[in-house]
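I am writing to request your help with a piece of structural work I have in hand. A protein sequence and the structure tokens that stand for its backbone fold form the material at issue. Please examine both parts with care and let me know of anything in them that strikes you as inconsistent. The record follows directly beneath this note.
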Amino acid sequence: MRTINRWLTSPWRRSAAAALTGALPVLSFPAPSLWWFAYIALVPWILLARSAPTGRRAAYDGWWGGIGFLVAVHHWLLPSLHVFIFLIAALLGLLWAPWGLLVRRFLGGAPSAGRCAVALVVLPSAWLAVELVRSWQGLGGPWGMLGASQWQVGPALRLASVGGVWLLSFLVVAVNVAVAVLLAVRESRMPAVASLVATAAATSAAWAWAPRPDVDGRVRIAVVQPGIVAGQDSGDKRFDQEERLTRRLAGQGADLVVWGESSVGFDLDDRPDLARRLAALSRETGADVLVNVDARRADRPGIYKSSVLVGPDGPTGDRYDKMRLVPFGEYIPARSLLGWATSVGRAAGEDRHRGTEQTVMNVGHGLRIGPLICFETAFPDMSRHLADDGADVLLGQSSTSSFQHSWAPRQHASLAALRAAETGRPMVHATLTGVSAVYGPTGQRLGPWLGTDASAAHVYDVPLAHGVTPYVRYGDWPVHAALLVLAALGVTEGARALRLRRSAPEPLGRPARTVHESPARPWR
């Protein structure tokens, strides 16, 4: 231990260690998907910040750990953003500087049992505040929320139906804090053990108390994944491939056919021939076809990315324009200042336009669907609003073809399990090149994943459930509770500082005049 402490006396070596420890949680997400590792992944980072010699150094440990975390969970963006990803990580990593300070404040030195108990509430609350700020779509959205690592754990998905992914993040951080206390603070192990017991009890209570979705129907939804289509005229070639795959669905009893994001590269008003071919597919399969148009619109200026429903007579008029665009991928924030990003990566050459409201579509068979496009599936509030507006099935249309050989496709597909569990609605995640996946109303996986090597059409038997989950009813209450905890901390710390200032002893007398002071009067 002494050798490690001596090695960490160098500021740069300590910063490198902080970045490395901050990156560890990435192993909890797909593709490694070591979900259990999330419960100890923050421990080295916490122990490092706890040992900081000063508050400033603890803030640096938080900052550098945040940089490591963000680069790790977004490493697949390197081919697109190049050096820009490090600049973004350095800016957003500052969000973790106060977290590092709080780690040292409550766990540094020889903390009492009371301080450790407070840390078990304050530190997870501070982490949620960081996730809340960086969840704004202008800052990249909620990709890599710590609770999302629990997408395949049944009890965790039950908790998601109560408090969303936010509650999962809170509990994961709380367990990490408890483990760090068990390892480093012998005198305060009882609060740590009590915290672990309370976490287990809360999970068990949620499992028993949270209402389970009651299956009250079934639909058959087909996903069409064309696979990689490149070269000249790729838009027409992709449409041809999707058309061939969709024809195979005739006679399979599909109630809806879903194509992936940017599956149609032309506005259907400009290409009535494509609209007619889609209508013919709807007649052949006996189901409406939900496509995704990525093109300049004929009826208004600008490029839009839109979910468009096509029935046997052509487009039905139901359309959803993507509202939350991917920074740099679909628009460049402050393009006049940051437009140079197009010269160092695959940033958007022209900004796409945003939609103004979410849409629930009626596709026949009594089925109402709520479409989401691309990384909108990462936003729990969007799927919550669709469920509240009456959607029976959530549909995500995505394309991760630019990141085909990275961890991104699997991680993106895993998010649909959380959105399903949060809302009690099944969710279909349809992509161009994989991974496509379908989940039931409790977040359970249905049927096969269509991987990045697949070009296929598959029909999924999807159970329907209704009712309102606590998360849909009460929203992001864990975030609100965390902010109240931090507000109470601010008031308490402010009162404590004021009390210390008032109790400071007054000087006993006038300070002695030094030889350098000028006398009040000259000596005579």
Residues 517-524 have pLDDT under 50 and may be disordered. The longest strand covers residues 214-225. The CA atoms of residues 430 and 436 lie 5 Å apart.
